[in-house]
Amino acid sequence: IYPTAKDGSRAVAQEIAALIKAKQAAKETCVLGLATGSTPKYLYAELVRLHREEGLSFRNVVTFNLDEYYPIEPDALQSYNRFMKEQLFNHVDIPEGNYYVPDGTVPKEKIKAYCEEYERKIEAAGGIDLQILGIGNNGHIGFNEPGSNLNSHTRLVTLDNSTRLANAYEFPNMSQVPRLAITAGISTIYKAKHVLLMAWGTHKAKIVRRAVEGHSSDQVPASLLQQHPNCKFVIDEQAAQELT
Ligand code: F6R
């Protein structure tokens, strides 16, 4: 628990930087699983600062993002492909071709094969060393909404209405919020060697409590992380205020 979101984000950035450097020293690739949304914005800003001011290099980094709306063009204002370029990829030295964000333009009949290929790419890269997560107000991780199966893989999902409402601020109006998304599955997340879930603000306090102290259940997907062998929640004091 950190005093503020910025403090927590700095700590996570330090952890990522240490991992990248350790992998560099071992001449290995560092595979990161990344999230979008408001939660990781400070983290990405801090990683960009570490690159610019402290010489942190991303040349040995490969990244896989959790999710993307479907359908959506990659340059749409709300696209997670665009978000990642604007927040991180355009500002660091990660080689083009080393970062993957699900493609919201894949024709529907090809989505199943596309998602299987996404999983294969993660495995071919050596698996995710460190997965960054946010948490939805309903406990979703990635876009794995309540009821998502522990064995779920990357797939096309229907967004909960509560998720569409929470994300409506990004769109001109509610009717334009996509109903579908491509998301990495719970099992995809579970296979990561190390998981860091971040949450900031009083509006996340209730769901953080349910995820950490509640019964582990697929009705609160983040609570399934209680069984992960190497998972940490990094939260600010506001998000911690309901913890007992
Ligand atoms: C986004 C993602 C989602 C968000 C969650 C919280 O890639 O995977 O699970 O992390 O919806 O969103 P924010 O951070 O906007 O509160």
TrEMBL record:
Coiled coil: none annotated. Catalyzes the reversible isomerization-deamination of glucosamine 6-phosphate (GlcN6P) to form fructose 6-phosphate (Fru6P) and ammonium ion. Residues 5-227 form the Glucosamine/galactosamine-6-phosphate isomerase domain. This is Glucosamine-6-phosphate deaminase. The chain holds residues 21 to 264 of 641 of the full protein. Transmembrane segments: none annotated. Belongs to the glucosamine/galactosamine-6-phosphate isomerase family. NagB subfamily. The active site is at D67 (proton acceptor), N138 (for ring-opening step), H140 (proton acceptor), E145 (for ring-opening step). The lineage of its organism: Bacteria, Pseudomonadati, Bacteroidota, Chitinophagia, Chitinophagales.
